[in-house]
Amino acid sequence: MKNQGDVSRRAVLAGIGSTALLTGLSGRAQAAGNVFRIGAPNTITGAAGVFGTGVQNTIIEMAKRLNAAGGAGGHTFEVFAEDTQTLPEPALLAARKLIEVNEVKALLGVYSSPEALAIIPASNAADVVLMHTGAAPKLAADNTEGLGFQFYPSSQSIGFVLNQIVTKEGYERPVTLTLTNDASIGNSTSFHKYWAEQTGSEPEDIRYQPNQPNYRSELQQALLANPDVIILNGYEPDATIIMKQLYELGNTARVIAPEFAVTTRLIEALGPELVEDTIVYRFVPNSDSAAYTLFDEVYQAAMDAPGSANTYAAIAYDEMNLVALALELDPAISTGAELADAIHKVCGPDGEPCNSFAEGKELIAGGATVLNYLGASGPCDFDDQGRTPGNFGVSEVKSGEYVFAYGIVFED
Amino acid sequence: MIHYVITLLSIGGIYLLLAQALNLQFGFAGLPNFGIVGFFAIGSYASALLTANGNFPVYGAMLIAGLLAALMSFGLARIVLRLRTDYLAIVTLSFSEIVRILVIGEEQITNGPRGVSGIPGIPLLWSPGVNAVVLIIAVNVLVALATHLLVRSPFGRSIRAMRDDEAAFASISKSAVSYKLRVFGLGGFVMGVAGALYAHYFGYISPDQFLPLTTFYVWIAVILGGAGRLSGALIGTIVLTLFLEGSRFLRDVLPFISEVEMASVRIGAIGFALMVLASRRPQGIMGDFTSK
Amino acid sequence: MFYANLAMSGLVQGLLLATLALSVSLCFSVAKFTNAATGDFMTVGAYVVVAIQAVTGGSLMLGVLGSCIVTALISLLAYWLLFRHLAHVSPIMSLVASVGLALFLRSVLSLFAGHEQYAIDYPIARAINFHGFLIVPIDLWVALASVALLALVFAVLYLTPIGLQVRALADNRDLARAAGIRSRGVMIVLWSLIGIVSAVGGTIIGIKTVVIPDIGWNLLLPGFAAAILGGLGNPLGAVIAAILLGICQELSTPMVGFVYKTIFSFAVLIAVLIWKPEGLFGRVEQVR
Fold this sequence. Notes:
B: two-stranded antiparallel sheet; 2 strands; C: mainly alpha; two-stranded antiparallel sheet; 2% strand; Branched-chain amino acid transport system permease protein (chain C); L-valine transmembrane transporter activity (chain C); cell membrane (chain C); L-phenylalanine transmembrane transporter activity (chain C); BCAA_transport_permease (chain C)
């Protein structure tokens, strides 16, 4: 099979050899001064590709701003970014490379349970802090060194909140629309449990697959139960399609959805009429919090879009602030365990409340040893196993804007 | 650095097993299997479910995983082998999607999208401290040896003859279908074992890990290296892994490229390389069966 | 009425797949390989519409027209730079190369447009209710656009001299060559058609869903299934198979549920191929 365009084996191998040489030369980036290295293995491509870029750019933007403001505790930040493809094995490889080659002390913005579960044995062994949004219960059990921080509230607490909202608004015939993934199924299952305990009846649950062009049959089935409220457990892309098709099919029931599904981008794409009165919950007690406003500004700078488009970026923003506050509180931090300890001291729930790194820095300068950072994504309090309690804010969409209604605190 | 290299070897080793299996099926016997990830998933789930909640021995489970994948492979081959190659490619691709959706749907058995966790690691017979990478490499060597012996055997000569000219082969022997079935089954076995190794290595599996993209990566490795040569699968896998991982290091010296852009560039470069190789050097880096 | 609405839902689903299946089948009929980049051609089509809408301030008509031109050019370029060189190697190699092209196109899109979602602007309206039978206005337009597209493709294939050459080449390459048909002109017509079908198909899919780099790729497998069921290389068969598959898939949901509906087409595909290895409307080794 010799043809004119034939490339010889030697030429190909030579090309590969020189590429390998080039990559080998890069080695590890040496940096001078007191540099604190942060790893950002995020979901740039793959199933959660719509969130990863915002998360990563937020982390990079925050590092830039913190450095410009003089760093934290004498440290400046250096961010090493990677793509995890939303898959566990590239995530683990990225994490190992970040830990061993770039010598990072913390991994931020890790997205899913499979990724976090793949990484956590490696980060534990290497004494590296892992901040993630996985929801699997096993992540708490695997957090043997206390280095893991789980920023996504438990499915149980989300089910509790959904039940509270439905009860508070006086609805009687809820139906759940559930994307077939770990977190969404967990949320719906938990809601069903609470609802069954309270009313003795099991609401209808419609499971839908991602990446379908047409959800009309699913929605028809949901509407057949004549619901007065529809609980949507999914994400932005599928929620955009479903909200549109619900409207087209003449739905009049109210929809309850997380803010990372009914985003400002969704509202912009569909127009305010279609999402009017939708109930939106987020993991933050007060949507007008000072921290949120600050985050929104950072996200605008990083992504040229409103911060409400990406809850995971708000979480990444908080992760950076916690690391920075911990370093400010204890500038001598050199190990992951020390960093985790210091994060527990600045995250709350005890201590003086602060909404930003700047506020916290002032408090520390004034002699505070325990802080309570109140973040853009939530209160950012963590128990011994690194889990965050559910502390939610509920809004309604009015004329295309979120209007804060009330807060709900999870009680076990 | 050592843990990173070991991880790289382990994951690369699992992919290499898949590439070797495809090389056997496509490179030596001319059967385009695009359902690799399906057999990989069957092996993964079989071994994981057997061992996660019981005291079933891991090695036994891995063997059963391989046999189950081989059986499914054999069964699918029986159905589809009389189709022409284009149809065969698409049908096997569809099969892998069927497997994935069944895993999502059959929650009682597989725990659905929530995945299986708590899968025990690989116990090694001599020293518990040695990493799973030893076993993964050992299995690879074993498969390579077996393939080497197989292709030199009368059976191997027959499947190569069949690949090169099926019509002529059919005229002298009626056993083309039986050969194809056996090759498909053997490849399936290796894919199933690779899946089991994967499950025990990671300790957690979920349906999202078994998307068709994995299949395409394996194809890329085999085409890159050169189909129908033992060294082809190895070189292809090494080159692909070097490229995927090497581009991470490349970025450390090229700070003006963001990771967001690099993620696109990385996939784009693989796509580009695939196009160039397929159209200009279809026999791969090492040369394939046509350029011995 | 419940089942009538399901069938309606299936019809829309089928029309969405029909454009993809048509494109796959057109490519196979003459170029003789399964084109895995078909879905990504559609993604390109959808992004071009979004881009043109952003520039012109929301004109969907202009968007579709522009998209047809751009996508046809990209399709021609793909033929000229890539597939032309693969005419004499195994069709599996062409399939592998088309996977490469698919990855490449997607990476270029995500490099310039990012991974966030976009939307194609169109007036969203409530369904018209005929005693419980719901017709969504945009679905009517989708159906209309699909029919117009099919009419265009079949008019080119069956009513023009060049169409006759395309069909001749599809039927028997050697005979067609002997009769003096030059394949270059035929290929230009064919790949332009593929581009136009992709642009319109991509627009329809973008309207019904959201525009992200993976939309086309996600629909590729069901599109393949329809193309094969229709007998690869038989464009009309592909369209009919896609619509039948869509309707059967949605009608099956009360029995199999919404998770398994996504593999309905694959299961049907395997079942039919066991029974008829050449597909529903295919003839062995004699495809049109």
